[in-house]
């Protein structure tokens, strides 16, 4: 069951936020709220009277059911049980003001800069450890990373709501149709065992390092069931044909903890196309939020859709000429 209807982020008053966290955790806060950049959900930093810091995340209404959030918590618990460095939620799923929310301890860390060969191997090892645990349980209430359940639905949302500029509509529709004709068979050809729990948004910004130089992975909000390669390609510096050195180093570390089917490297560019469509839909969902127009003033206008359609066309060329095949 999703969070109740009728709630918008504008209803997240300071009193509601502070009261929800205090009731959920039993701590007393100092009253200061620091908003963080998180456009799908709403994320705030708070501090208690003993100067301990916390992060509270209010989930976008209707985005995840309680069971889907429970799948996220279960994945984190499985990782924590074998000492994989993740940030564990404090307590169970909270609910306040029509929103589900979660509270996490704040960690002092910075984004990990992947520079040396050893750095690439380390991040590969981290993801390999996560996937080793991921395969042991399922996430039945989460999305599956396939175009039928995600990309096709997102394209339909953009088209049905007439969000694509009329001057770009024909090209956008044609490009998406051809891309899906390539992507659908590739994902459908994977065996069932190739799909397991994954982080879902494993880019460099979600891998942190602290004073001890240990790596911590954060933000499992987009976790899903999908192929392992989805958690690897977002780390790459460019398209797969230009990033095979980095991919091989990642897979060297990954292979220490989890098996990997190298044929699925062929999915990198198809998954990138799917990601591009996901991002367009992600913005479309938020376009009526307070402050969205100020952050993205050109979103949705003719020039925007010309650029986006050209980018999708370029990505389609990569799909047509992928150098590695399943």
Task: Provide the fold topology.
Layout: H1 14-25, E1 29-36, E2 42-48, E3 53-58, H2 66-81, E4 94-96, E5 99-105, E6 110-111, H3 117-134, H4 151-160, H5 166-188, E7 196-198, E8 207-209, E9 215-217, E10 224-226, H6 230-233, H7 244-254, H8 268-286, H9 292-295, H10 302-320
Antiparallel strand pairs: 1-2, 2-3, 3-5, 4-5, 6-8, 7-10, 8-9
Helix pairs in contact: 3-7, 4-5, 4-8, 5-10, 8-10
Structural key phrases:
Transferase(Phosphotransferase), domain 1, 326 residues, five-stranded antiparallel beta sheet, 10 helices, 2 domains, globular, three-stranded antiparallel beta sheet, disordered N terminus, alpha+beta, Phosphorylase Kinase, domain 1, single chain
Number of strands: 10
Contiguous runs where pLDDT drops below 50 for at least 5 residues? 1-6
Query: From the 3D coordinates, which CATH architecture of the largest domain would you assign?
Result: Orthogonal Bundle
Structural class: alpha+beta
H/I helix tally: 10
CATH class descriptor of the largest domain: Mainly Alpha
Describe the sheet with the most strands.
5 strands, antiparallel
How would you describe the shape? globular
Instruction: Give the rounded overall mean pLDDT.
Output: 93
CATH topology call of the largest domain:
Transferase(Phosphotransferase), domain 1
β content, as a range? 5-15%
User: What spatial order of strands do you see in the largest sheet?
Assistant: 1-2-3-5-4
Residue share in helix: 40-55%
- N-C termini distance: 38 Å
The number of domains: 2
The CATH homologous superfamily name of the largest domain equals Transferase(Phosphotransferase) domain 1
Order of helices and strands: HEEEHEEEHHHEEEEHHHHH
């Amino acid at each position: 069951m999703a969070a109740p209807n009728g709630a918008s982020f504008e209803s997240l008053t300071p009193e509601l936020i502070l009261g929800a966290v205090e009731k959920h955790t039993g701590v007393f806060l100092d009253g200061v709220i620091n908003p963080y950049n998180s456009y799908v959900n709403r994320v705030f930093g708070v501090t208690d009277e003993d100067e301990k810091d916390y992060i509270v995340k209010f989930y976008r209404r209707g985005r995840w059911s309680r069971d889907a959030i429970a799948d996220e918590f279960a994945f984190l618990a499985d990782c924590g049980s074998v000492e994989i460095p993740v940030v564990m939620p404090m307590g169970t799923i909270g609910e306040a003001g029509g929103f589900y929310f979660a509270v996490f301890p704040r960690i002092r860390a910075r984004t990990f800069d992947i520079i040396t060969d050893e750095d690439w191997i380390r991040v590969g090892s981290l993801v390999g450890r996560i996937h080793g645990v991921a395969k042991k349980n399922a996430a039945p209430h989460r999305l599956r990373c396939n175009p039928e359940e995600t990309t096709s639905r997102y394209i339909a949302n953009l088209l049905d709501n007439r969000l694509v500029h009329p001057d770009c509509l024909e090209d956008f529709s044609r490009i998406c149709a051809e891309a899906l004709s390539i992507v659908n068979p590739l994902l459908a050809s994977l065996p069932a065992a190739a799909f397991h729990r994954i982080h879902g948004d494993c880019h460099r910004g979600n891998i942190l390092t602290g004073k001890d130089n240990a790596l911590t992975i954060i933000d499992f909000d987009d976790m899903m069931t999908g192929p392992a390669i989805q958690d690897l390609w977002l780390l790459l510096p460019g398209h797969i044909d230009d990033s095979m050195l980095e991919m091989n180093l990642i897979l060297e570390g990954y292979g220490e903890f989890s098996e990997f089917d190298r044929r699925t490297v062929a999915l990198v560019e198809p998954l990138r196309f799917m990601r591009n469509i996901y991002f367009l839909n992600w913005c479309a969902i938020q376009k009526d939020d307070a402050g969205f127009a100020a952050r993205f003033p050109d979103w949705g206008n003719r020039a925007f859709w010309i650029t986006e359609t050209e980018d999708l066309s370029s990505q389609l060329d990569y799909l047509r000429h992928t150098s590695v095949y399943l």
